[in-house]
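Exercise 3.2. Students should predict the tertiary structure of the chain below and write it as structure tokens, then compare their answer with the key that follows.

Predict this chain's 3D structure.
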Amino acid sequence: MEFSEFERRAQRVFAEIPPEYREGVDGLLVRREAVPHPTLPDVYTLGECITETYPTEWGGPGEVRSFVVLYHGSFRRLAALDEAFDWEAELQETVHHEVRHHLESLASEDELEEQDYAADQNFARREGEPFDPLFYRAGEPLAEDAWEVEGDVFLERELSAAEFAALAEIPVEWEGRALRVPRPAELGDAHFVTLWLEPPPGEGELVLVLLRRRGVLESLRGLLSEPEPRVLTSEVELPG
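Answer key:
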């Protein structure tokens, strides 16, 4: 999609948002450049919400104003990487997402920023890059010790080294299915085990996250030395 058509459609999507949700958003700007992620390949910033808070004359919190910016070049780069790239859907989702950032700022909430962080770290996990081993906790809670990040479901289990060594299989229940996951060879500090099921649980991945529970002395030593966590990944196929 050429720049002029992209800009026209972007302004239309923005104008179709009810005025009460656009209050405080001064407009939408479309820029030509692409904004790549600083470390992750083939990841681009499609848009952002630039927000400033203007203090009142008494020095307290004041009016929150925002401006939505879209990067046409980022859309073009992603479209070149994916033949099924849906310009219209991605455009609408990005504009609505950035306006919601403004609403979150008005409410002094950071839910969207946490979701963005979780999505970013999950992409790094999928690409084999280093990632925060607890990123999924910033996703959407589904149940006790279960979170969703962009369609991927993470089930957390905390085990001591002794408990882990004593198990041959790790029982897991999800959506009425009783699964028995073969114990991986190592626990590490965190071990992400992708579970491949037939039939699959959904469009995303089902991941069992094994966290090492530390004893008191071990935790104190960790506070003093602050070592890098040892994060492992593996996958296993399970019968239906």
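Discussion points: The mean pLDDT is 82. The helical segments are 3-16, 19-22, 72-81, 87-106, 111-126, 161-166, 216-225.
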